[in-house]
Design brief:
5-stranded mixed sheet
Length: 101
């Protein structure tokens, strides 16, 4: 029984140890700058920026200065001009597919 424990201990130690080739392999990674992705986004006709929507007391989104719940396409852009969100609203609530980037 002692021989089995000794054999298991040796196998466990050998199996869990890392050889020098793997250590060097882990250290030789190449960091690259991310590519800047340019977005020439043009919103769909009639789409409004989500920042122009207000939340009314009933929890529905309306255009600024309006009490009518908004229905139509919406979008939002990051500070760098890339698309952040694209989707649609119906009767002041998100409706259908909303895509986040």
């Amino acid at each position: 029984m002692k021989k089995i424990y000794a054999l298991l201990l040796i196998l466990l130690t050998a199996g869990c140890s890392k050889n020098e080739a793997n250590k060097k392999e882990d250290q030789n990674f190449d960091l690259k700058e991310p590519k800047q992705v340019s977005s020439n986004y043009t919103p769909q006709a009639g789409a409004v920026d989500m920042k122009t929507l207000d939340l009314n007391p009933e929890g529905l989104f309306c255009l600024e200065g309006s009490d009518v719940p908004y229905t139509g396409k919406v979008f939002s852009l990051w500070a760098n001009g890339n698309v952040e969100v694209e989707g649609s609203y119906k009767d002041g609530k998100p409706d259908g597919l909303t895509t986040f980037w």
